[in-house]
Structure formats: C-alpha cells, structure tokens
Amino acid sequence: MQSPTERKTGVYTYIGQWPIYSVAWSVRNDKRSRLAIGSFLEDYSNKVELVQFNLHTSDFTTDNRLVFDHPYAPTNLMFFPSEDTSNPDMIATSGDYLRLWEIHDDHIELKSLLNGNKSSEFNSAITSFDWADFDTRRVATSSVDTTCTIWDIEREAVDTQLVAHDKEVFDISWGGFNVFASVSGDGSVRVFDLRDKERSTIIYENPIPETPLLRVEWNKADPRFMATVGMDSNKIVIVDIRFPTTPLMELCRHKGSVNAISWAPLMGKQLCSAGDDSRALIWEVVGSNYRAENGVAVMEPEMWYGSAAEINHARWSPVELDWIAIVFLNKLQLLKV
C-alpha cells in the first residue's frame, strides 16, 4: 500500500463570520452541494448558516436571508434525509432542544420545538441526534439526562423514551429499522431494538475505566460495522456487531484526540476521521488487509489532509461521494477525495 500523501489540490475553503463547530450536507436532489454550518460562540445567541457550493466553478455562495439565530451552539445539524424533492426542505438542530426549521427561498422559520421532558418546560441538553433515512418521521436524540428519545416529527410527539445508560448519553446512530446504538459517559456502546425496549446489548466497553465514549457512527451502507471514539483518545475503534465486546480493529494514527468520524456512503468501505492533530485521515476499513499487533489489527490511512487548526467536525457527503466537509476555526473546508 502506498504511503499516504498530503494533498493540496481539491481543497476548497469558505471563511465564516464566527468559529464553526457543526456541519451537515443537504441530501435533496436539487440541493446536493448545499451545506449548513453551526457556530460555536460562548454566548446564548449562536448562528446556523446555509452555504451553497458550486461543483463546476468551485465557488461558495451565501444568502444573508438564509442565516438564523440558534440558542446556544448547535451540537448537531441534519437536513431532511431524502433525495426526493417532493419532501419538505427542512433542517433539524440540537442543543437545549431538538428543533425543526423550514427552509424557504428567502427565509428560514422555526417549524417545531420538541421538548421530551413532560414534567417541566425545561429540557436536559440534547448532545446529538440521528434522523432516520429509512423512516423520515423518526428522529432519535441523546441527552445528558441518560435517556434516548425517539420522536415522531409528523405528530411532534415522543414515540419512545428509554433510560439508555447509567450516565450522560453523548451520541446516537440508527443502524436500521427499529435499531439504534448509543454511547455514554459510562464507557459503553449499547444497541437497542425498539421491539424489545426492556433490554439492550452492550457491543463494546471502553477498556479505560471511568472514561466516556463520545462518538458512535453506525455504517449505514454495511450495518455489520460501527465506529466509536473515547474521550481524549487518538483511537477509532471499529466493532463488528456479529462479534461483540472485542474490537475488529483500532485505528491509531492520529496524534491528538479524535473529534469526528464519518463513514463513506453507499459502499461503506471507507471511514474519515478528524481531530485535534489538525488532520483528516481516510481509512479503507471494510475488506482491507491489515496486520495484527498483540491481537489487534493495525492499519495505515489511505490518505490524509492537513488543516491549519484542530478539526471540530467532519462529514462525508451522502450524495456527492467524493467530497468530505471539515470545519475548524472559522473555516468550512471541502476536500475532494
């Protein structure tokens, strides 16, 4: 395998007006290269902005009418997960609540604010969410109050709420119809099946005691595999759900904490990771040849990109398969892979 090289061609940068933490790609057929970026400001008032990238001219365009205020920094952003243009043009955000916003040509308006706490007008912080592409009514959220909530966004009502972990739940990812995974401050990856809500399966536990797992990403194109990352860890752990508790491999070539993981769409063979070492690495995970050291698979990345600062987030485009978005400082960078 040839050694990875840093590539500068095929890197396109948009400079925002504020520090950027979150990023999402549009899925709609008529808006395939549109993105959303969310600010990271310590104030109550934060921003979400829509940015259009032109694949032919490599230019970015924005419209100041397509920027909206967001209470607190959004922890995650997702557009309506369907290519069908007959669906409403919407974006969801998480922070103090799960919110759904309707996108119009000249403005964006709040459609619904979803509060899962029945006993109070206040809600525990939503750490992340995943919008199911196989059933676009369903959004799964994770919260610091140890719960995961499945929303029916058409009814604007809770479908299911589970006490999922012993500590805060930091991330959540659908693996298929009725099935999702979550990670927590208790250091476990748990898989839930909504047809049997009383039980969950622990797929992996962080071997470092008392250390949270912060990210989980189920491979939507090949649901045998999921990736997870621990707090302050430079490792990405790949788990084959058919062989729980023992990692399939650990990807250990980051030189700082990993902040983001994103599987390639459709084929699901590759994974992008990004972190505090200012690098985005691309790994050929599924079907790859790797060597074992002390019983754990060791792998080199296929390629890597260097940025100017710690990378906060990375997202592989779900429809433009050779594009990855990363965000750092006040920059959105698109990488052609």
TrEMBL record:
Keywords: Repeat, WD repeat
The keyword Membrane is assigned to this record: no
Alphabetical list of InterPro entries matching this protein: DCAF7-like, WD40/YVTN_repeat-like_dom_sf, WD40_repeat_CS, WD40_repeat_dom_sf, WD40_rpt
UniProt keyword Endoplasmic reticulum present: no
WD repeats: 162-202, 251-285
One Pfam family of this chain: WD40
Classification via SUPFAM superfamilies: WD40 repeat-like (SSF50978)
SMART domains, A to Z: WD40
Record's protein name: Uncharacterized protein
Organism: Gossypium trilobum
